[in-house]
């Protein structure tokens, strides 16, 4: 299967994970940040396609995406 976004996503993953982003750094850059437990509390996870995760926000049933970094695992930059 040919994924036209694969090369773009791979580059984004490299950039996101090139420097360990602390929670404080990510909050300053993107606003709200979630760890895994917080993500599970606030969202239903639909699927992963690194560096994105498709989610459904529990509070209002809004579908959207988050970006994530691998280590430490934080989710950020919610977009609906």
Beta percentage is 35-45%
Radius of gyration, taken over Cα atoms and rounded to an integer in Å: 13 Å
Separation of the first and last Cα atoms: 27 Å
Low-confidence parts lasting 5 or more residues at pLDDT below 50? none
Overall body shape: globular
Largest sheet: 5 strands, antiparallel
Structural class: alpha+beta
Strand segment tally: 5
How much helix, percentage-wise, in residues? Answer: 25-40%
Task: Give the topology.
Elements: H1 6-18, H2 23-30, E1 33-34, H3 36-42, E2 43-49, E3 52-57, E4 63-69, E5 74-79
Antiparallel strand pairs: 1-5, 2-3, 3-4, 4-5
Question: Which key terms come to mind for this protein?
Answer:
single chain, 80 residues, alpha+beta, 5-stranded antiparallel beta sheet, 35% helix
Descriptive account of the structure:
The protein has a five-stranded antiparallel β-sheet, with helices on both faces. The protein has helices spanning 6-18, 23-30, 36-42; strands at 33-34, 43-49, 52-57, 63-69, 74-79. It has one domain. A hairpin with a 2-residue loop joins strand 2 (43-49) and strand 3. It is an alpha+beta fold and 80 residues long. The protein starts with 5 loop residues before the first helix and ends with a strand.
């Amino acid at each position: 299967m040919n994924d036209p976004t694969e090369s773009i996503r791979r580059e984004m993953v490299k950039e996101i994970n090139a420097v360990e982003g602390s929670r404080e750094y990510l909050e300053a850059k993107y606003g709200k940040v979630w760890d895994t437990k917080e993500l599970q509390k606030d969202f239903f996870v639909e699927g992963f396609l690194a560096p994105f995760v498709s989610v459904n926000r529990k509070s209002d049933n809004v579908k959207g995406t988050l970006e994530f970094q691998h280590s430490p695992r934080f989710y950020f930059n919610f977009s609906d």
